[in-house]
């Protein structure tokens, strides 16, 4: 399952990678540290699953979700 990690904290993204490593069916195809990069990655990578931080500086995760088609 193609997965994208979106979190403004690098350590949180690293921890998610570590936790997901035991699940071979999950392929992490990319990461993003803010909503703008996340939006571009979603369009480009077309993930099936997104781990999304809801509290990020600037545009939060909920606003990002609302902006997607």
Tell me what you see in this structure.
It is a single chain. This protein is an alpha/beta fold and 69 residues long. The chain is 42% helix and 22% strand. It is built from three helices and three strands. The chain has helices at residues 10-20, 35-45, 61-67, and strands at 2-6, 27-32, 49-52. Strand 1 (2-6), helix 1 (10-20) and strand 2 (27-32) form a beta-alpha-beta unit. The radius of gyration is 11 Å and the shape is globular. The two termini are 21 Å apart.
Uncertain segments: none
Task: Please count the beta strands (DSSP E, at least 2 residues each).
Answer: 3
Q: Order of strands across the biggest sheet?
A: 2-1-3
> What is the terminal-to-terminal distance?
21 Å
Q: Helix- and strand-based class?
A: alpha/beta
What is the strand and helix layout of this fold?
Blueprint lengths: L1 E5 L3 H11 L6 E6 L2 H11 L3 E4 L8 H7 L2
Parallel strand pairs: 1-2, 1-3
Features:
single chain, 69 residues, alpha/beta, three-stranded parallel sheet, 3 helices, globular
Summarize the structure.
42% of the residues lie in helices and 22% in strands. It contains three helices and three strands; from the N terminus they run βαβαβα. Strand 1, helix 1 and strand 2 form a beta-alpha-beta unit.
């Amino acid at each position: 399952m193609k997965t994208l990690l979106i979190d403004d904290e690098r350590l949180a993204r690293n921890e998610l990678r570590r936790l997901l490593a035991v699940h071979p069916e999950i392929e992490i195809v990319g990461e993003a540290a803010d909503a703008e990069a996340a939006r571009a990655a979603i369009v480009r990578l077309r993930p099936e699953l997104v781990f999304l931080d809801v509290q990020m500086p600037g545009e939060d995760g909920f606003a990002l979700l609302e902006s997607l088609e």
